[in-house]
Amino acid sequence: MKYLGSRILGLLVLLLLLMSLTACGSSLKSSNHVDKVQGAYKGQELAEYNMYINFSNHVNSEFLEAKANYFAYFADDNLNYIKQNGTKEIVISRSEQTHQCINDLNEILGNTPSLSLEKTTQNLLPEVKAEIEILDEMADYYGAKEYTKDHFEKGKKLHAELLKTNQTTNNHISKFNTEFDKVAKEQDLAEMEELKKNGDMVSYVFADFILKAEAVNLELEKQNMNAANILKLDTCAYCLKYDELVNSYNELERVTKDEEQLDNSGITAADITAIKAKATKVEGDAESILDRVQSKDDVEEYALGNVAVLEKIIGTPEKLAKSFKELDSEYTNFIALK
C-alpha cells in the first residue's frame, strides 16, 4: 500500500467509523409493506413498524452523514475544532427528515407502543433531536457568516457541545440498530414465508436476494473492510456469504425467466427489468471485490479520501454498498407495483 498522509487517513477512518454505525442496519429498509403481505405485524403494529423503518433509514443516512460531513470539515484527527477560511462558503447539512421521524415516533410513544423498541427509542430520540438542533444552529451561524464578527467563537462553542454528546449518541444509535435489525429480520422472514405461501415466487426470490446481498455487506462491515484495507479481506468468511448470494442470484435468474411464475406473481417481464438490472449489478460488484483481492490490486491513493469516487471504483466495498442501496430502493418501487 502506498504511503497515505495521516490527515487524509484519519478523516477517512472517522467517516468510516460514523458510517459503520449502520452495520447492523446497513440497508435502507422498505416501509412499503402492503396489507396483502403483512408478515409478523398487522394493523397498528405494522404502522408503528413502518415508522421505525423511516427513523432507522434517516438517522443512519441523513443524520449520521450530516455529522460525518461536519467533522470532516471542522475537525482534525482528534476531533479538535478547526477554523475554516472565512472566504469560503460554509454549508452545514440539516436533518429535517430525521427530525420529522422523531416527531412521528414521539406521538406513538406517548400513546400505546406495541413493539419492543420503546425503551431504547425513548432514550435515543431526545439525544438525536438535541444534536440536530446543534447542527441547525451551526447552519444558521455559518450561513449568516456570523463567524466574521466573533472570529469563530460561537462555532467553537457549538463544536464543543456536539462533541460532548457525539460518542454517547453514536453508541445509542448502534444499540438501536442492533435491536431494530432483530425486529426487522423477523418481519422480513415472515413476509417472505407469506410470499412463498401465496405462490409469489418472483417477489420471493428478489426479497431473498436482497437479504443475501445485505449479508455480504454486513460481512464486509464486520471485518471493517473499506477501500484502504480491502486486500486484508478474510476471503473464506466472505465467500460463505458470497456463495449464498450467487445461489440466490441463480434462482432469481431461473424464476424470472419462467412465464408461469411471472403470471402467478401478477407481473410481466417488463415490470422487473429495472430491479433485475440492479440485482445483476450487486452480484457483479460483490464478485469484483474477490477479483481485486485475488489479484492484489490496491485502490489508488488519490481516491481513498473521497467516498463519492470510491463508489465508482470497481472492486471496492463502497461501490457494492451503493449498488445495494440502489437495489433496495428499486425493490420499494417494485413492491409498489404489486
Can you give a write-up of this model?
- This is Lipoprotein.
- Keywords: Signal.
- Residues 1-25 form the signal peptide.
- It comes from Listeria ivanovii (strain ATCC BAA-678 / PAM 55).
- The chain is mainly alpha-helical.
- It has two domains: 40-183; 199-337, A middle domain of Talin 1 (Up-down Bundle).
- 69% of the residues lie in helices and 0% in strands.
- The chain contains twelve helices and no strands.
- It has helices spanning 6-19, 43-74, 96-109, 118-143, 147-150, 153-197, 201-222, 235-256, 259-265, 273-294, 307-310, 317-337.
- Helix 6 (153-197) packs antiparallel against helix 7 and helix 7 (201-222) runs parallel beside helix 10.
Q: What is shown here, in short?
A:
This is Lipoprotein. It contains twelve helices and no strands. It has helices spanning 6-19, 43-74, 96-109, 118-143, 147-150, 153-197, 201-222, 235-256, 259-265, 273-294, 307-310, 317-337.
